Task: inverse folding
């Protein structure tokens, strides 16, 4: 449950930080499909944020398709929503551009960047195969 | 202030935060203007409204000869909404020695005792005047946890000069500078519009005619750094192009609440000086 142990960094919007940490937890399988997601109250208490903010975060994750609100049960994790291909390409391009700019700035070589990507990829995707299958099915 | 929000009134010591709160609580009378709580003028607050307001101040006077238990027993009859189960929960959460005389409590315990007295009747409005002053981090966390447990049932109005304390908690924020309200807006929109910008120009001779919403501008040769106070993600390139600024490199970073306040305060001072000229 590393999401609830998240150390909020001052300066960056709380909302973005927590949504990012949650997204990371979904794609890495830390929160698997069908698993219960912390309630507004738990999220607020553990992260020491206002319940209004916690509520907004959960609503956002529901809208994005990561979570599903089941009446009488609570909020549970959905199957990973598949991004439309166009959206995916654009998102990747923006992020990769930012990464390459940063790499050039600090003078890192292309192979250094590649191995850093591979390493993080390994860390974050214990269920990589399952994900690939899901994506293939949704395509 | 919107009902249900956590509203932080921020400003340096002497900015007028405590005065504002005392006006709201009818401890002071306004020379001009008025303050309204629950739709009632603060000068006409009756016991009925006051029973819905919790007030905790760093200089709170508590009856030092009583134990906390005795004091709670004294308070209970005044509040129709007093919740004895909640009282037990809060005392346990705060680890308060309720059978000891209030005069023997440490400052941290006294502040927690004052907060307990305010939380037990489910106030619709909790007013906190510099509550974190002189609290060690552990007690501060406990204090915050106590407020957060009930934050979805009340409006919180909190004054502080310590920004780190409220950065993750406040939903709305107002900045008081020498008696003047510099801004008041939601945390989301405030943090969204401030960015630290660093531009590397093509040459170091281009003059920059900066608009007033660029704050705290520093320039050294071809590098210009400033705090943008009206940032929108897609507009900066356009803004720079319209100004005829040609640059080689552009860095945009989010800022912390502290930077928002220091740059706003500095800009306010500069503007006041500009007016005098």
Result:
């Amino acid at each position: 449950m590393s999401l609830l142990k998240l150390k909020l960094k001052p300066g960056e919007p709380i909302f973005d930080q927590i949504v990012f940490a949650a997204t990371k937890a979904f794609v890495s399988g830390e929160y698997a499909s069908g698993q219960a997601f912390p309630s507004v109250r738990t999220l607020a208490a553990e992260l020491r944020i206002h319940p209004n903010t916690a509520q907004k975060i959960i609503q956002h994750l529901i809208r994005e398709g990561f979570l599903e609100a089941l009446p009488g049960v609570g909020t549970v994790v959905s199957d990973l929503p598949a991004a439309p291909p166009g959206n995916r390409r654009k998102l990747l391009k923006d992020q990769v551009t930012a990464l390459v700019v940063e790499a050039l700035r600090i003078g890192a070589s292309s192979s250094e960047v590649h191995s850093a990507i591979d390493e993080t990829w390994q860390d974050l995707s214990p269920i990589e195969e399952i994900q690939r299958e899901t994506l293939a099915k949704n395509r | 202030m919107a009902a249900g929000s956590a509203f932080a009134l921020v400003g340096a010591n002497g900015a007028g935060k405590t005065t504002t709160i005392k006006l709201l609580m009818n401890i002071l009378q306004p020379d001009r203007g008025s303050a309204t709580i629950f739709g009632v003028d603060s000068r006409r607050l009756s016991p009925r409204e006051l029973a819905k307001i919790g007030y905790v101040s760093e200089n709170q006077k508590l009856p030092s000869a009583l134990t906390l238990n005795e004091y709670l027993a004294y308070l209970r009859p005044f509040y129709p909404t007093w919740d004895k189960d909640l009282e037990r929960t809060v005392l346990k959460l705060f680890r308060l020695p309720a059978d000891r005389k209030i005069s023997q409590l440490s400052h941290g315990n006294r502040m927690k005792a004052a907060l307990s007295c305010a939380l037990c009747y489910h106030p619709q409005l909790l007013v906190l005047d510099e509550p974190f002053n002189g609290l060690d981090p552990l007690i501060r966390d406990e204090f915050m946890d106590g407020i957060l447990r009930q934050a979805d049932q009340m409006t919180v109005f909190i004054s502080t000069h310590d920004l780190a304390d409220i950065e993750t908690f406040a939903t709305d924020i107002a900045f008081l500078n020498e008696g003047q309200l510099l801004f008041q807006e939601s945390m989301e929109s405030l943090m969204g519009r401030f960015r630290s910008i660093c531009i590397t120009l093509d040459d170091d001779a281009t003059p920059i005619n900066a608009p007033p919403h660029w704050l705290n501008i520093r320039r050294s040769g071809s590098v210009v750094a400033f705090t943008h106070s009206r940032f929108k993600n897609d507009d900066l390139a356009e803004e720079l192009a319209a100004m005829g600024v040609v640059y080689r490199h552009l860095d945009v970073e989010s800022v912390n609440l502290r930077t928002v306040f220091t740059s706003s305060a500095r800009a306010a001072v500069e503007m006041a000086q500009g007016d005098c000229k």
Notes: Chain B touches chain A through 26 residues (CB under 8 Å). The longest helix of chain B spans residues 257-276.
